[in-house]
Amino acid sequence: MRFMIIRKADKATEAGEMPSEELLTAMIKYNEEMIQAGIMLAGEGLQPSAKGARIKFSGGKPTVLDGPFAETKELIAGFTMIQVKSKQEALEWVKRWPPLDANGGVELELRQVFEAEDFGDELTPELREAEERLRRQASDNSKL
C-alpha cells in the first residue's frame, strides 16, 4: 500500500522561510530511517504558492490564476511517498515526524494512493499495460 504524507503549508512556508539547520538535520535523519526501512519512495518540499499557479477548467477551457493563495490551510508545503503493509504502519511512521517542524505545531495529512487493482474491470488489460508503460517512462524521466 502506498501512502502520501502531506505536509500542510503555514505562514512560515508560504513566506518562503527556510528550515533551520537543526530541522534539516532532523528531517534527513527521519528520511534516512524510512529509506533504510525500505518504505520511502520519494519526498520533496514545495516552493511557496506565490511561485505557483492554479488552473481551473470550466467548459473544458483553462483559466490560470497566479499565486499567492490566501487560504494557507488548503495548501501543501511538501510530501513524502511511502510504501507500507497497512494504514496503521503508515500512521506509526507519521507519528515519528520530527517534532521540531513548525515549532511543534506542524499539520500532516495521510492519504492512501490508488493502486491499479482499485479500478476494477474499468482498467482493461490494454489500459493497465499503457499505465504500466507510462510509469516506467516516468521513472526513467526522474533519472535525468
Automatic annotation (TrEMBL):
> Where is each YCII-related domain found?
1-106
Q: Extract the InterPro entries matched here.
A: Dimeric_a/b-barrel, YCII
Q: Which family does it belong to?
A: Belongs to the YciI family.
The protein, known as: YCII-related domain protein
Q: What's the source species for this entry?
A: Collimonas pratensis
